Amino acid sequence: MGKRDWCYDAEYRTYVDDLLEKPQVQELKNYKHHHYTNRLDHSIAVSYYSYLLAKKMHANARAVARAGLLHDMYYYDNETAKEVLNGENHYKVHPQIAAINAAQITDLSDLEKDIIHSHMFGATMTVPHYKESYIVTLMDKYCSIKDVSSPFWQKTKDKTKSFVQNHETTLKCKEKFDKIKKEKMKPLAKNVEGKE
Ligand SMILES: [Fe+2]
Ligand SMILES: [Fe+2]
Predict the structure, then answer these.
(1) Mind listing the domains of the chain with CATH numbers?
(2) Model confidence over 55-94: pLDDT tens digits?
(3) Residue 44's closest CA among 59, 60, 29, 54?
(4) Rounded to two decimals, what is the model's pTM?
């Protein structure tokens, strides 16, 4: 899936456009998330992947798209969580904060509340009650791993490419040098032959 595929998915857009227009949602792009991305891009990825999977599983695609988009709606940097939360566990608390913030910009169904509250299942013991909640918690983990690993693989790919290119340039230079050497040695070889 391309990074911007969601933009061209008309059905998906009907589910989330009203939320994406809210400044409270747009503000998420000001927060770094998983080192390499921002919280808005991460939330859109979780929302869109969850929506695609929900459609395949005949689950509620609208609910996962909306709750997926709002699942990390909190406004502090993860690095400062300890101070901001007075030592409370960020993993446990941020889904509750996100649900409160989300409820201020839209009506949340019980299903959507459950999706947001239980998205940290595994790191917390808040067990999902619906298959839609399992979809979002799974996609959250998938996207988090992707957020962290993609830049690493890109860097490795770039380094390998530049190594191969440098190696190819070295080989070409060597070939050229060998050719020149051979040509310059020819008359010398002739002279040597002539003398003999
Ligand atoms: Fe989260
Ligand atoms: Fe997340």
Answers:
(1) 5-151 (1.10.3210.10)
(2) 999 999 999 999 999 999 999 998 899 899 999 999 999 9
(3) 29
(4) 0.78
